[in-house]
Amino acid sequence: MKITFLTVIFMFFLSGCSSVVEAPTETPDKDEVVEMPEEPEESAEIINPETRVSFYGVGDNLIHSYVYQYAHHEEGYYDFKPIYKNIAADVESADLAYINQETVLGGDDRGFSGYPAFNTPSDMAGNLVELGFDIVNGSNNHTLDMGTTGLLNSLAYWSEYEEDVMFTGAFESQEHRDTIPVLEKDGVTFSVLTYTYGTNGIQPDAPYRVNYFNSDLIKNDVARAKELSDFVMVAAHWGDEHAHYPNQMQLDYAQLFADLEVDVILGSHSHTIQPIEWITGDSGHETLVIYSLGNLIAATISDVNLLGGAVSFDFVKTEEEKAIENITFEPIVIHYEASTPGNINTRTNFEVIKLKDYTPELEQRHALNGHEGNVISTEKYQETVDEIIAEEFR
Ligand SMILES: [Zn+2]
């Protein structure tokens, strides 16, 4: 009885309140749409026990001078976005899209450059954000191509977009380096750690600028990252250029990351695709390692470097466990043509094209096809993919 009484009083109180709030103060116009209260959906009361965050990752965004010349507009700005139009939907639709920005946005006032010391127009930052990239790695062998000033300029450009993108891998202070970057999506948290084998012999002015591979540093970083987030990703810049298989250093560090219970390793630097595999850490933890995604874009003149890839998968979190599912590798071809047919020094019309959409007509138009023995062949590239990437990921 007591409960009923209290309930009645409570309901009276509630209805009294709501009638005061909702009572119309004037008669609505006949044109006005009067919204009827919606019936509560039954499904809303069922709490989904599983959260899925989709991921899409690509390799080296390697901006040779031919690439930025192609992106240049007379008005003075650079628009790289058309180059990526065939993967734009995949980038946009992923909850988290990742890219390795291989070349530094070192300062627009310093003049742009390609190989060997790259300086990429800062318009690239806004372009990648517009495309929908969420995580940009800035830790690789070109991070110091434009020195400390270039690194700091790069940080300043990316900071304009810090609401939309996590740029990490280059640091302005010890405190900055020591702060584990964490992002959150639908209540699931992710840390992104970054390491490079070197910086092309250029010494940083301070030890915190870039993370070089170092077991003690890695152990410390991963331990802290695991406390802060559900999943730990590592961007690893490593390996032998042009090699299709990991070297001993890659194998050793991949095992260390697995032992430390890292969840995903996103490798790049070889400019070739390398295997994807699960490796087991000493605690039994399974780590997904993508040894190298190859190039996303580049103007190199070796056919082996013009086959790259994108990896997609779902991070899955339930109350009991965390998992990575639906891993798929999508091979891509870096297409370019010659504005003067037969002259490799007139490279233009850059475009990232999925291998499954590549055609004999495009093969014929590719400026590298037939140049110094290079062959751009869909069939040959598919054979490489079949050889390197295990069937379960294709
Ligand atoms: Zn590299």
Structure report:
The protein is α/β, with parallel strands linked by helices and 394 residues long. It has one domain (52-393): Purple Acid Phosphatase, chain A, domain 2, CATH 3.60.21. Helix content is 26%, strand content 25%. The protein has helices spanning 2-22, 65-71, 88-93, 123-131, 147-159, 174-178, 215-228, 248-259, 360-365, 378-388; strands spanning 50-61, 96-100, 135-137, 166-168, 182-185, 188-196, 231-237, 264-268, 276-280, 286-290, 295-297, 307-318, 322-338, 347-354. The strands form two sheets. Strands 1, 2, 3, 4, 11, 12, 13 and 14 form an eight-stranded mixed β-sheet that branches. A six-stranded mixed β-sheet has the order 5-6-7-8-10-9, with helices on one face. It starts with a helix and ends in a 6-residue tail after the last helix. The site of zinc ion has 5 residues, from loops.
Strand-residue proportion? 15-25%
**How would you sum up the major sheet?**
8 strands, mixed
Q: Please give the share of residues in helix.
A: 25-40%
> What is the CATH topology?
Purple Acid Phosphatase, chain A, domain 2
From the spread of the alpha carbons, the general shape counts as: globular
Low-confidence stretches: 1-28
Indicate the CATH class. Answer: Alpha Beta
Could you tell me the radius of gyration in angstroms? 25 Å
How many β strands by DSSP?
14
Distance between the termini: 66 Å
Query: Order of helices and strands, N to C?
Result: HEHHEHEHEHEEHEHEEEEEEEHH
Task: Give the tally of structural domains.
Answer: 1
Number of continuous helical runs: 10
What is the CATH H-level superfamily? Metallo-dependent phosphatases
Tell me what the CATH architecture is: 4-Layer Sandwich
On the 0 to 100 scale, the average pLDDT is 91
Attached small molecules: zinc ion
- Structural class of the helices, strands and pairings? alpha/beta
